[in-house]
Structures are given as C-alpha cells and as structure tokens.
Design brief:
Elements: H1 3-21, H2 47-60, H3 66-69, E1 72-74, E2 80-82, E3 92-99, E4 105-110, E5 116-120, E6 137-146, E7 155-162, E8 174-183, E9 186-189, H4 191-194
Antiparallel strand pairs: 1-3, 2-3, 3-4, 4-5, 6-7, 7-8, 8-9
C-alpha cells in the first residue's frame, strides 16, 4: 500500500473516531416543565403502552352494548343482518366499528341477543401507516357478502376509504380492500389479496 492509501485510511479512521466521540442521544430531551421536546433520532414515548391499552379495550368487547364504552363507533350505514352459514341457521349482524381516537377499523359479528360471536381488527386498512397506532381510515365505501372461493360459505369483501394527512398523496382519498374468508364460525385473511 502506498503513502496515499495510508493517508486515506488514517483520515477515514480519524473520522470514525471523531464520530464515536460525539454525543448522541436516542431519547427525547425534555425541559423541566415538559413543554418543549427536541427533535432527536428516536423519541422515547409510550407507544407500546398505548397499543396494549387499545388492544385490551378491543379484546374486552363481548357484547354490542360494550362497543361505545370501549371507544368505538358503529358504522350504522354499513351494518347488516346476514346469514353466514358457519354461524348457524339464524341471521347474525355484521357490524363494522371504528376506534374513535386512532381511526382503526374492526369487524364484529353479533347474534340476535347482542353477544359477539366473532371480531377482528386485523385488517389491511389498519396497516397503512407502518409503526403507527393511528391510521388514515375515514370510512367504508362498500361491503359485500359472496362466496368467493367456492366452498359454499359467504365471504366478506370490505372496501375502506383512507386519506393521508401528509406526504405525496396527502388529502387525496384512496381505497383499501380486505377479503375475510368464512371458515368454521370464524374468518381468515389471505394478505396477498389485500396487497
């Protein structure tokens, strides 16, 4: 290695050493009265606790009358009585619900007495802003019940409307689709269809 190569390595090594000596914080810096937060590479917050509370509230919904008390609103114009074969011969009620703070959508199936037979919040519309509890869902465009995989059971197709606050497509509405395939008193999703 020549003199020039040794100089380049020396300069590179010195630059790395200087970077390692620089102060670097990955926590939010707060003043004494907690009113100003500085912009640092990663802000320490309580996202995990908020998500755990959100999920615990959703899990606690056991009856239709619980929905509002756990921070959800029923989207009435897209709620329907429907016959879903694996839930028996009686009609059940399909209820899309949206969480009031974070705009996360969920689907609930209830019997005639108001007991929740099935519920899920694992929908593509809840994963548009990766790593964020809040989502851009603004409502439902359409819902249909049709046997899509020819197994004799009606499946649910759900199209939601979303709108981003910022970014290249901010304030331009777009649609997100989900298909819930019925199976044995439950539903499953094929994520590839949503993608």
């Amino acid at each position: 290695m020549g003199v020039r190569g040794k100089k380049i390595i020396a300069v590179f090594t010195a630059a790395i050493f200087m970077c390692l000596q620089m102060p670097f914080s990955v926590k939010a810096v707060e003043n004494r009265d907690d009113t100003i937060r500085q912009n640092t590479p990663v802000q320490e917050d309580n996202s995990l606790q908020l998500y755990e509370k959100y999920q615990a509230d959703f899990d606690a919904i056991e009856r239709v009358e619980d929905i509002e008390s756990y921070g959800y609103t029923i989207i009435e114009e897209h709620s329907f009585p429907v016959l879903l074969e694996s839930f028996g011969e009686d009609e059940v009620t399909f209820l899309p619900i949206i969480e009031n703070t974070y705009h996360r959508l969920a689907v609930v199936i209830a019997d005639s007495s108001g007991k929740i037979l099935y519920k899920t919040n694992q929908l593509e519309t809840n994963y548009k802003w990766k790593g964020s509890l809040e989502q851009p869902t603004t409502g439902i465009v359409s819902v249909s019940f049709k046997d899509l995989n020819n197994d004799g059971l009606r499946d649910i197709t759900l199209i939601t409307s979303c709108r981003n606050r910022t970014g290249e497509y901010s304030k331009i509405p777009y649609k997100v689709g989900d298909v819930l395939f019925q199976r044995d008193g439950s539903f499953y999703r094929d994520w590839r269809i949503s993608d």
